[in-house]
Model the fold of this input.
Amino acid sequence: MEQQNKWIKEGKYALKWTRLSCHDFDDNQVRLQLFTMAYNIGNFLRRLALPKQIKDWTLRTMRERLIKIGAKVVSHARYVTFQMAEVLVSRSLFYEILERIKRLKPIPVGCD
Done:
């Protein structure tokens, strides 16, 4: 029960899933389902793709340091690059996370 309360608090503060501001019940239901899906994706990322040194980050920390990163898009003739500030996450840590995500493979489902 204590772990479940921890997850609920984390969802409330990191994703603000208690903000059901739509006037229609069905709209609020869809909004809550989207928040739940975002929470599950964040947990998936935290458990399977984050390096050991940042495994204990909360979803709020992940959101602030990994997802809400400002970047400048620079377009050249043959390529596009993103220039990101290395204030919150170093370049090497960011690339390590991307590599860990890239190594995740789907589990094949047997055909009957």
The chain has a mean pLDDT of 78. The beta strands are 71-75, 80-84. The chain has one domain: 2-103.
